[in-house]
Amino acid sequence: MKTLLFLLLLLPVTIAVNAQAIPSAKATYANWLYLNNSNHVLKGVILATDDSTVLFIDRSFLVAGKVIPSYQLQVIPIAMIEKIKFRKRNSLAKSTLLGTAAGAAVGAIVGYASGDDECYSTGGWFDCMFVYSAEEKAGLGAVIGILPGMTIGLLLGSSRKTIHINGDQGVYVLTRDELRKYTLSGE
């Protein structure tokens, strides 16, 4: 009976020691780790940084930016890292939508500002074919402005910030505070 009681008291301690804490924060940044002398790129999120390692979670263990309970932590030594790239999650979609709206707005303003056209007919059947009011020009300008605005937004949103480490511990120590901003814990 004493043995059973002892085992029941020891059970919570054993569970607490074996369980990994699941990060509860939602990933704000997407990370790409480029390894030295390798074409393989690791995609996911950086959980935290140590003095000589980076703790990384692969994107296959993320669902809607949150870490799933069965995640596997990768410990990557600094000597293996060539560079790390970052981009805010969903920045591509947000900037594309913002660029599209801005392009449509600019096109509409330019079209409306050009005013109404007047017809100077010389008697030909096609003389007044391309005469538009300011409102019609605003609509056309909005439609025409969508594509350039969307393209500019897409290009701006797809940019990534890069930190070059090249396996150098000294460079890592200098950039570690900046690197912490892009981790899952965000320290």
UniProtKB/TrEMBL annotation:
Regions crossing the membrane: 92-113, 138-156
Superkingdom field: Bacteria
Protein name: Uncharacterized protein
Residues making up the signal peptide according to the UniProt record: 1-21
Record key words, sorted: Membrane, Signal, Transmembrane, Transmembrane helix
